[in-house]
Amino acid sequence: MAEPKTKPTDASVDAFLDAATPARRRADGLVLVDLFREVTGVDPVMWGPSMVGFGRYRYISPVNPRTRGDWPKTAFSPRKASLSLYGLKDLPEGAALLPELGVYTEGMGCACTSRNSTTSTSASSGVSSPSPGREPTTPNRPDIPSAERDRWSDQRRGRSNSATTAV
Questions:
Q1: Positions of the region Disordered (predicted)?
Q2: Cys bridge to 47: 42, 51, 94, 116, which one at CB 3.0-4.6 A?
Q3: Tens-digit pLDDT profile for residues 32-41
């Protein structure tokens, strides 16, 4: 199995944020790192070359249960075009805060906003608060009855006659 590309590094979070461009992304990053640290109680760690993460959890891919790895519970990346926020969409409480970000787009695991995120402190603090308790959303979770996990696996393999079975 291939080694994951996004993993914790020893790179300096402060050096990364100091080098972020444009200036408004640098300012966003400096505000968010303090806010996330305060809300999560965890020190930031660089994940890969451009993601500032807080905490860690073990995930199992819902698409391929053999794919597993570590991922930050919550994170952000001050990219040039937009600010990417990770972990916000995982829980209903966090997803409800998305409109407070203003105009945003959604990726597979993130919400991206081109607006200055520091103007919405309530949304930014909510970004990091639901995520520390985040659990991987996977059919292998122990809180899902084994019959439900089996039905999910059968559906993924095309063995189910019922297309509307809830997981």
A1: 114-167
A2: 51
A3: 999 999 989 9
